[in-house]
Each structure stands twice: as structure tokens, then as C-alpha cells.
Amino acid sequence: MEKALWYLIAGTRGGENRARIIRALEDKPRNANQLAGTLEVDYNTIRHHLEMLADHDVVERGGQSYGELYFLTDQFMHHWDEFETITEHLE
């Protein structure tokens, strides 16, 4: 998971937005539309980042396919300190 987090957050152009999505989901589960509005990022961009995060077991989907909520996975939460360390490199 640590290598995947470095890649997702620090190794690609979209890392800052992915970190913002993770922080928003830490606050409460949200759907893609809510995230787009909260973060003021295009809906399709949010969907792309959510797919990347889901592919690497950072987030998981819950609920109906329309308006489904996204949650941080337990696996990711065990690596929260590593996430914090990585995001320090973004600033």
C-alpha cells in the first residue's frame, strides 16, 4: 500500500486532487457529485481520481450505482501516517 500511495499522491500530476478527495472522505462519505461541488473540481475529473483510488484499495463504493457513496477503506486507514508523510512533500 505504501508504494501505491507514493505513486498516487506524489508520483503523478493528479496527486494533489487525490489527497484532497481523501481528506474530504475522511470528514464523511460522499458521492462523486458532492465531491465535485465541495472541491470545485470537474465531475469527470473526480470520477477519474475515484477510479484510481478504488483500483488501489484506498476507497470503496457503497450504495446504489447512481449516487453511490465513497468511503476510505480500512486497509488505507492503517496507512494514514504514511499518507500524512507523503502529503507533506506536496507543500
UniProtKB/TrEMBL annotation:
UniProt-listed InterPro entries: ArsR-like_HTH, HTH_ArsR_DNA-bd_dom, WH-like_DNA-bd_sf, WH_DNA-bd_sf
CDD domains, per database record: HTH_ARSR
Gene Ontology MF annotations: DNA-binding transcription factor activity
PROSITE patterns: HTH_ARSR_2
Domain HTH arsR-type: 1-91
Protein name, entry field: Transcriptional regulator
The species this protein was found in: Natrinema ejinorense
